[in-house]
């Protein structure tokens, strides 16, 4: 759930391909050939259900066919649920037997979840690693999976990821796992898909499912969403349950949707947010859950009256004039839509935060060992019960897990910790101070509803902004904001806020999306997969 490239630079896999971005695409036939799963939204599908243009079985089969056709190249899906068609049949029966208005928005909708979410079914939960054997039994569904099932959603399968959520080794490429291979960005195969929720973002962009779910510790929802030209919501930590999810740390871990539209992402957030007795962090955060849900904040005029702060340095520092011009046009659009834009603001300690990876790693490595050992101890029928067992498996299977190429330094650094002592507590206190004296101070001093950020800076096109939100457990949303003129690299715009301000962020993001309509779906014309 961490974007390691924000902490330690890692090599990119080289993939040769010819890709193009176009609004045109080839339809996937279902019962009614006028309906296509490509780019289909939740609302499109619900309408098609009522018009008898498609059934859940036909919908699921169409997604499976598309996965079978394209996943061998894109590697966005690690496993398809063998019971998906049976679950679809159940949804069709329930729809026949009930009034449509009595069913939730996600009823009969196929969802892909990242391969760190426990599912009490025939699928495995492995974090992309062979160390967690296929066939090991989890005690129960993850909390958010339970909520999705209760909403009538169909768990279509598991999305690929950066192995162990990117927390195994410094040299580990984003989007790679031993089980899932190298995930490929559907817009440009020479461009990283980012991670660690790479497969969720790839799958959303490529229409492998209606909606997907990811997880983030530091950048792992927001970065892949931005680079795959989809919408990602990283909620306030604790707004969504982390129970039954292979963890990095309960302090910053957050579960959220990755979808093609803001409305779909919000529908998913409505389904998964809320109290879970198996995750104590959801208890205090439940005060932020709004009566009536989050969909009520999908307002076309949502930018009207908002106060937005623009932090140009480093988030809008671009070497390319066309990228600079694109974002200047977006700033003007925000103003035209009724927002008050306060420009050229500064996060006073931004350089300290972005250059201080070691403080975050000091906290995370200790928290990871404690959290992972707790998770593994609850597995049934698994020989790997501790982090030490996982390290030992990798050492005994170096070729299978590419240990010589990608290492497991973060595993080893975590194993060397001995609980959360003085050093770790000081690191956590420092992160809290950095948030308080930086982002929070900026928001409160300027009475902002949100900070606007882009992918500028030294890691372009990967934004450094998610780090600012991650260390404080703060919420953020990224929305497609166009493409570079030179190579059509996707660009995302980020909106970040204080804890519990999802309603404001949704209003802002939805109004921006509707005003710009910047997203263009990827079209794969020819693709050759090769690694070096």
Note down, in words, how this protein is organized.
The chain is an alpha/beta fold and 532 residues long. It has one domain (4-527): Amidase signature (AS) domain (Amidase signature (AS) enzymes, Alpha-Beta Complex), CATH 3.90.1300.10. Helices cover 35% and strands 14% of the residues. It is built from 17 helices and 15 strands. The protein has helices at residues 42-50, 56-74, 84-97, 143-150, 198-205, 222-227, 262-272, 282-285, 321-336, 350-355, 357-377, 387-396, 403-406, 409-415, 422-445, 465-470, 502-516; strands at residues 17-21, 77-80, 110-114, 154-159, 176-177, 181-182, 211-216, 231-234, 254-259, 307-310, 340-342, 450-453, 476-483, 490-496, 522-527. The strands form 3 sheets. Strands 2-4-3-7-9-8-13-14-12-10-11 form an 11-stranded mixed sheet, sandwiched between helices. The chain has a two-stranded antiparallel sheet with strand order 1-15. The radius of gyration is 21 Å and the shape is globular. InterPro entries: Amidase_dom (IPR023631), AS_sf (IPR036928). It holds the Pfam family Amidase. This is Amidase domain-containing protein.
């Amino acid at each position: 759930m961490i974007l390691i490239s924000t902490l330690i630079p890692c090599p990119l896999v080289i993939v040769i391909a010819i890709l193009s971005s176009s609004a045109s695409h080839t339809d996937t036939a279902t019962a009614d050939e006028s309906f296509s799963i490509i780019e289909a939204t939740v609302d499109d599908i619900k309408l098609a259900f009522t018009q008898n243009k498609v059934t859940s079985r036909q919908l699921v089969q169409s997604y499976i066919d598309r996965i079978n056709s394209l996943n061998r190249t894109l590697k966005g899906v690690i496993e398809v649920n063998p019971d998906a068609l049976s679950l679809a049949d159940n949804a069709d029966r329930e729809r026949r037997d009930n009034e449509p208005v009595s069913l939730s928005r996600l009823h009969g909708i196929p969802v892909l979840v990242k391969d760190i979410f426990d599912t009490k079914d025939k699928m495995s939960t492995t974090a992309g690693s062979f160390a967690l054997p296929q066939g090991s039994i989890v005690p129960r569904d993850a909390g958010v999976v339970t909520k999705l099932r209760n909403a009538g959603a169909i768990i279509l399968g598991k999305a690929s990821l950066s192995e162990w959520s990117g927390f195994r080794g410094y040299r580990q490429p984003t989007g790679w796992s031993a089980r899932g291979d190298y995930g490929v960005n559907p817009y440009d195969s020479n461009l990283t898909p980012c991670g660690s929720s790479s497969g969720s973002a790839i799958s959303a962009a490529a229409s492998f499912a209606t909606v997907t779910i990811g997880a983030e510790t530091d950048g792992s929802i927001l970065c892949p969403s931005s680079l795959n030209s989809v919408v990602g919501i990283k909620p306030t930590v604790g707004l969504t349950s982390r129970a039954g999810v292979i963890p990095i740390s309960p302090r910053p871990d957050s579960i959220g949707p990755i979808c093609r539209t803001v409305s779909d992402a919000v529908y998913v957030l409505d389904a998964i947010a809320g109290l879970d007795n198996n995750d104590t962090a959801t208890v205090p955060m439940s005060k932020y859950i709004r009566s009536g849900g989050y969909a009520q904040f999908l307002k076309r005029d949502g930018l009207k009256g908002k106060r937005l702060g623009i932090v140009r340095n480093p988030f809008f520092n671009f070497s390319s004039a066309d990228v600079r011009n694109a974002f200047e046009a977006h700033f003007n659009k925000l103003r035209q839509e009724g927002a008050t834009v306060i420009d050229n603001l500064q996060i006073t300690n931004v350089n300290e935060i972005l250059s201080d990876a070691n403080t975050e790693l000091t906290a995370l490595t200790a928290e990871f060992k404690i959290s992972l050992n707790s998770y593994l101890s609850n597995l049934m029928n698994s020989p790997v019960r501790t982090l030490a067992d996982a390290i030992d498996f990798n050492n005994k299977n170096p070729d299978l897990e590419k240990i010589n190429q990608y290492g497991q330094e973060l595993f080893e650094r975590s194993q060397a910790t001995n609980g959360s002592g003085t050093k770790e507590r000081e690191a956590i206190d420092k992160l809290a101070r950095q948030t308080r004296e930086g982002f929070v101070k900026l928001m409160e001093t300027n009475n902002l509803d949100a900070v606007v950020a882009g992918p500028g800076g030294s890691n372009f096109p990967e934004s450094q902004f998610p780090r600012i939100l991650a260390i404080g457990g703060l919420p953020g949303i990224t929305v497609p904001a166009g493409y570079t003129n030179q190579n059509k690299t996707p660009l995302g715009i980020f909106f970040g806020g204080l804890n519990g301000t999802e309603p404001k962020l949704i209003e802002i993001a939805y109004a921006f999306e509707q005003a710009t309509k910047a997203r263009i779906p990827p079209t794969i014309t020819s693709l050759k997969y090769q690694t070096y």
